[in-house]
Amino acid sequence: MNTTVTAKAHTNIALVKYWGKKDPQLMLPQNGSISLTLDHFYTETSVTFDDQLAHDQIYFNDQLLQPAKAQRISQFLDLIRQRSGQTHFARVTTGNHVPTSAGLASSASGFAALAAAGSRAAGMHLDLTDLSRLARRGSGSATRSIFGGFVEWHAGHDDQSSYAEVLQDPVDWDVQMIAVVLKATKKPISSTDGMARVVATSPYYPAWVQTANHDLDRMRHAIAAKDLHALGMIAETNAMRMHALNLSADPAFNYFTADTLTAIQAVTDLRANGVNCYYTLDAGPNVKIICAGHDTAVIKAALAKHFAPEQLIVAKPGPGITITEA
Amino acid sequence: MNTTVTAKAHTNIALVKYWGKKDPQLMLPQNGSISLTLDHFYTETSVTFDDQLAHDQIYFNDQLLQPAKAQRISQFLDLIRQRSGQTHFARVTTGNHVPTSAGLASSASGFAALAAAGSRAAGMHLDLTDLSRLARRGSGSATRSIFGGFVEWHAGHDDQSSYAEVLQDPVDWDVQMIAVVLKATKKPISSTDGMARVVATSPYYPAWVQTANHDLDRMRHAIAAKDLHALGMIAETNAMRMHALNLSADPAFNYFTADTLTAIQAVTDLRANGVNCYYTLDAGPNVKIICAGHDTAVIKAALAKHFAPEQLIVAKPGPGITITEA
């Protein structure tokens, strides 16, 4: 009989961004990053290794993935097979539990859940730190989604030294995010290709690595002090410096849409009116607003001028990974 | 009898941007810049020094300016009085000849015309190089508007060494710009304040100065070789690296509007379809498209999907300053 293992992992949003690989094979980043795991967006993945299978079968939201789309997942399963000695192919059923198809969960929660369910189903019993190292090989940001609350991913210099750990969990103060889910447009470039182009062509890249390391120090202090204003200002500046790298690449690219500019301006205006809120952005048009829970109503009201209620999703700090065997 | 001197100066659009002062008093830039003077946008300014006046009288587009708005012009006239020994106040009538109030002419043509008309009316006979140095004190970009065609402003290290000169005039090949004049919104920050914030807070600024100097070398070669593709690619990358500085400032700011992103995307799409066109942007939402005259129709047709015909203004290379005495 084959054991089925199910893992649930939440997505995370970086407050000090990961943007650029030092080693694409080992997925070592150029700089460390700090994130907040969110409660609202997660991936649930079940894995069963089965000697009756002639190849991996990957079901995503109940649809069997074609081989081309399943390839990245199969390669990750190869890594698990290689380490565990497991020789069979696997049946994987995975689903993203997000209110929309906005891609907010994506690869961070996906590869965290796959690392946890896949390794356990293959007979390995990894601790959370080793799970974090393993998830990293699937997707950089997945390194952080093993843990809940505020998490830091140490850049490291080899497989062993590049892993995430908890900075603060549970998060026992009033901080949250409001995801502004914007109309998806054709992505100008994938995050993998975007960051590779930036590392190769931006004259600003060395200064980015320096400033990100400085931001990590300051962000750790802001989190320890539960200082929303400091946390928000560091996150906002760091995010814009990441997007500045994209503008400075050759050729230039950017992930902004008209709605992105509108949401940024709304946050800036709110803050000018005394509301403690800050924005961050990743490799896509969506804006995430960092704020206190008690300001939710006033922020939603201001954004309602531009966006529909279903585009505004409140997310509280979320938990680390859970694993169950059936 | 008092001499009235009239000068006409055209605006210019930088292909390698000026963004940041080394010396705000002397208006010395951190890096040199290269521009194209345009035929379509100009300022005409007449100056008369008159012993009957109790203060400077500045008429802008036939309206007497209030003292607060006239101050920057009066301070420039003070500089001329100090150098020339002229003791009287002046009557200045100035007008921007641009198809819209989009601010495309603005301070570059304005201070170039004022430097030329004012200094001659005060009895000075400056050569073009000295006029360029004088115009610099009014507005950095005015340094270049003394000359026609392709112009380089040498950054220099003192008043004497910071001046512009012609790289190529007349421009005897098929290069032009199409100005995409977008809805004006409230400017987030003036260019003077914006560049000061960038110099003070952007971790990318030292790399900008290096890359701009490298771009100057490459741009000189592209102009000498009459190579539109090379010229356009250097200009586009340089412009986006200037705007990247703004995103990387603390606090971040940007001059993009939704229409800016639309125009940039239209140029990118056109080029992907084989049309030789490139964009550049200054401290505002407008996009200027660098292209050959023979592609005007196809570019206008593509942009007509998003913008009205009167928003698309074709500008050919323009002449240097002209001065007439009456």
TrEMBL record, chains A, B:
Organism of origin: Lactiplantibacillus garii
Family in the record: Belongs to the diphosphomevalonate decarboxylase family.
Gene: mvaD
Listed GO MF terms: ATP binding; diphosphomevalonate decarboxylase activity
InterPro entries: GHMP_kinase_C_sf, Mev_decarb, Mev_diP_decarb, MVD-like_N, Mvd1_C, Ribosomal_Su5_D2-typ_SF, Ribsml_uS5_D2-typ_fold_subgr
One Pfam family from the record: MDD_C
UniProt name for this protein: diphosphomevalonate decarboxylase
NCBIfam families for this protein: mevDPdecarb (TIGR01240)
GO cellular component: cytosol
